[in-house]
């Protein structure tokens, strides 16, 4: 583990993540204020801070490394980004396993969604309204603008200001205290400034929603339901601590939604599949409770329209599969795959089923056929590599995973499987290298460098393999020094 210093890194690690977000935004006619923070933090600096904080989160939070869910939230997120204004950074969308309702964005285009959000957002457009709001926080550079505002009132260093802001995103109660201490500003001024940002993000976000083809009324509907549910709660969800929902904000979003032409949006099967997967595997509830939720959801779907009913049967199949009730799971999945043979939710579940049934060869045939239709698809590729390992076809699995980790270097799943493949082949040096990449993704630089050093000692002296390890050590040392300089 790297040595922690009194810096942005240490301050952020010291808190548990929880955070802000719900909304949507709007007006194309707003003045260009995205560059207002240029005197404090450049876009390149934001990307450096964002990368550092993301590594911290991987090491300290239950990030959901689920290829199917990641593919889904990526599709929603990038559909919105493609229709957003003032996009200056790449965007990364990820999920945290947490039943609290929350979402948040931070430097560098990172947007996090708590799994609990899916349990309260009833439609895809409601989820998209939250994501659009968070995208607007990034494109309008609200963190950097708050930092600029604080810098005018405080002698604190950039790193101290960035740290206090990132804590505020991750842990609202601790964050407000940290910001107050760092800037000597009053609590009320911080709240007012936050509300100003929230309304601006709502205005930009609702415009993004409309352009991306989502239902704009989903935003005030979700806001209103959330406000009603927690109006008298002694402990509101983390999102409402930093994203307050006063009545005027809800009213404003409702009025803005009315200014857009009405749209009839068909229910999204993929969204309900994602919800069902979360209920079955990431909601932290017992199997009986998950089955009860899925039963009730299926009955409601059958009463109001059957387009999304298969999603809840899919959730039941996952519960059966995870409880080793393989015949029950297979019966449901057989029915579903006939309805939609190319659906990655179903193909992923079948891959797991065949492995549990000790029939990985069936999964291999199924996935090879699917990959011909959609080559290089991440969900299919990672499942395919896993199946190859189960078949002891390790050399082929390693070739697949080397390409996969090259294209998806931030996906810990690929590195874990690559490590497994090298272990099976007795390639200790390559196993160490794969595990070093996982450590680097979690900001454990010194251990990552140590593993690469050990790998280099195992490689043949003067070989290309040793040269590759040495070059990677040099890269990691540069990244580590940059990481530790954020103080």
TrEMBL record:
Residues 1-25 form the signal peptide. The active site is at 134, 202 (proton donor). InterPro entries: Mito/Outer_Membr_Metalloprot (IPR051156), Peptidase_M48 (IPR001915), Protease_BepA (IPR030873), TPR-like_helical_dom_sf (IPR011990), TPR_rpt (IPR019734). Its cofactor is Zn(2+). Pfam families: Peptidase_M48, TPR_19, TPR_8. SMART domains: TPR. Functions as both a chaperone and a metalloprotease. Maintains the integrity of the outer membrane by promoting either the assembly or the elimination of outer membrane proteins, depending on their folding state. HAMAP family: Protease_BepA. This is Putative beta-barrel assembly-enhancing protease. It comes from Vibrio amylolyticus. The lineage of its organism: Bacteria, Pseudomonadati, Pseudomonadota, Gammaproteobacteria, Vibrionales.
């Amino acid at each position: 583990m790297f040595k922690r210093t009194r810096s942005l890194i240490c301050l952020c690690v010291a808190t548990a993540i929880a955070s802000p977000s719900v909304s949507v935004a709007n007006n194309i006619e707003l003045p260009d204020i995205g560059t207002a923070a240029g005197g404090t933090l450049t876009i390149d600096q934001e990307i450096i801070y964002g990368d550092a904080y993301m590594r911290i989160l991987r090491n300290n939070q239950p990030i959901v490394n689920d290829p199917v869910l990641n593919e889904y939230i990526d599709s929603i997120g990038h559909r919105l980004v493609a229709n957003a204004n003032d996009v200056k950074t790449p965007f990364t969308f990820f999920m945290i396993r947490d039943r609290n309702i929350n979402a948040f964005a931070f430097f560098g285009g990172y947007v996090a969604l708590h799994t609990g959000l899916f349990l309260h957002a009833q439609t895809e457009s409601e989820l998209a309204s939250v994501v659009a709001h968070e995208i607007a926080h990034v494109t309008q550079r609200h963190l950097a603008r708050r930092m600029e505002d604080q810098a005018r009132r405080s002698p604190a260093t950039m790193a101290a200001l960035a740290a206090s802001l990132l804590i505020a995103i991750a842990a609202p109660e601790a964050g407000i205290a940290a910001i107050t201490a760092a800037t000597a500003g009053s609590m009320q001024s911080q709240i007012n400034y936050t509300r100003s940002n929230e309304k601006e993000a709502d205005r930009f976000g609702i415009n993004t929603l409309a352009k991306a083809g989502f239902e704009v009324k989903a935003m005030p509907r979700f806001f209103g339901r959330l406000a009603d549910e927690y109006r008298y709660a002694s402990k509101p969800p983390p999102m409402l601590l930093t994203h307050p929902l006063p009545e005027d904000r809800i009213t404003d979003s409702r009025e803005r939604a009315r200014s857009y032409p009405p749209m009839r949006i068909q229910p999204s099967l993929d969204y309900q599949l994602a919800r069902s997967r979360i209920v079955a595997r990431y909601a932290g509830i017992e199997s009986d409770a998950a089955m009860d939720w899925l039963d009730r959801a299926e009955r409601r779907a059958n009463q109001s329209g059957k387009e999304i009913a298969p999603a809840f049967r899919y959730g039941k199949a996952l519960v059966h599969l995870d409880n080793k009730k393989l015949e029950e799971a297979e019966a449901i999945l057989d029915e579903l795959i006939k309805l939609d043979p190319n659906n990655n939710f179903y193909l992923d579940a079948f891959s797991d089923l065949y492995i549990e049934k000790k029939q990985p060869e069936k999964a291999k045939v199924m996935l090879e056929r699917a990959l011909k239709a959609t080559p290089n698809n991440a969900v299919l590729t990672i499942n395919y590599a896993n199946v190859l390992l189960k078949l002891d076809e390790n050399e082929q699995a390693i070739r697949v995973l080397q390409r996969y980790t090259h294209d998806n270097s931030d996906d810990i799943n690929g590195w874990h499987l690559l490590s497994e493949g090298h272990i099976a082949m007795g390639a200790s040096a390559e196993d160490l290298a794969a595990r070093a990449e996982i450590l680097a993704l979690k900001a454990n630089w010194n251990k990552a460098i140590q593993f690469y050093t050990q790998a280099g000692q195992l490689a043949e002296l003067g070989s290309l393999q040793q040269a590759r390890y040495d070059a990677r050590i040099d890269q990691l040392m540069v990244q580590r020094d940059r990481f530790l300089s954020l103080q």
